[in-house]
Amino acid sequence: MKSYSTFKRVWFITGAARGFGALVAEAALAEGDAVIATARNPDALVKRLGISPGLLPLKMDVTDSEQIHAAVKAAVATFGRIDVLVNNAGFGLLGAVEESALSDVRRMYDTNVFGLLSMTQAVLPQMRQQRAGHIINFSSIGGYRSAAGFGVYCSTKFAVEGLSEALHDELKPLGIHVTVVEPGYFRTDFLDASSLSKSAHIIDDYDETAGAVRRVAATLNHKQPGDPARLAAAMIQLVNAETPPLRLPMGTDTLAAIAKKNALVEQEMNAWAALSASTDFAE
Predict the structure, then answer these.
(1) How far is the C-alpha of 57 from the C-alpha of 42, rounded, in Å?
(2) Tens digit of pLDDT at every position of the chain (283 positions)
(3) What DSSP state is assigned to residue 282?
């Protein structure tokens, strides 16, 4: 094992066996950084990332608190610090809000929200001690604006955005950066069954909304406009930035969606401003 000083940066990446997590891990290792890569199946990590002095592959499920704390302890024991936490583990659910089984919703919240929160809380004592670090929370285009067919999934990413905003304010005085990354449609396996669950209950009344989204998603799979390798390269630029942003939209589709929502919010706010203002106490 190399000495701690030979690594410019130490990353801790969840969900690193495939998708964005694996690509970011590969990019960090190529930079000469150390990476703690975690996944439910550690064999998949080694198969994807290989074996190197800077890689510590660990079995970890973000819904298991004991595994999280054991992984953080092993990371610090091995590399002495954690500079970047990438909360990437998560999955989606496709279906109208009414169609979504509560058991599926709870399972998704356990991973996308509570898993991310548990992971962050476990790493923060080390980063506070260092008075340095960067937390990168993977959200989505759906973390800024929701849409038919992905309402419950988007609600988990809205939660991630809310947590990230507060963490940004709380951690800035301690020298710790927080960035929420908002990818649009990238050519990953997100639309595969391994990453995206689909509501088993289908209601005909939603055929023109959530149903239409199901059909479009099937045609988009592995034809999305975003290049995952370029996103991974962008993560290196992000952590090298002296003043990283709170939000980092990824992809022209996300940029367009944000602009469209901002315009709608401003339009509605102006149209209803008189009623909104009328609710203050009369002086």
Answers:
(1) 6
(2) 444 558 999 999 999 998 899 999 999 999 999 999 999 999 999 999 999 999 999 999 999 999 999 999 999 999 999 999 999 999 999 999 999 999 999 999 999 999 999 999 999 999 999 999 999 999 999 999 999 999 999 999 999 999 999 999 999 999 999 999 999 887 766 555 556 788 899 999 999 999 998 888 777 766 676 788 999 999 999 999 999 999 999 999 999 999 999 999 999 999 999 999 999 998 7
(3) P
| Spatial separation of the C-alpha atoms in residues 104 and 52, rounded to whole Å | 37
Instruction: Name the strand (E) or helix (H) holding 232.
Output: helix 228-240
C-beta of residue 56 within 8 angstroms of C-beta of residue 75: yes
196 vs 225: CA distance, rounded Å: 18
Q: Which residues are catalytic?
A: 139, 153, 157
Residue type at 41 in one-letter notation = N
**Cβ pair 163, 135 in contact under 8 A:** no
The two structure tokens encoding residue 13: 């990446």
Cα–chain-centroid distance for residue 272?
34
Please state the pTM of the whole predicted model.
0.93
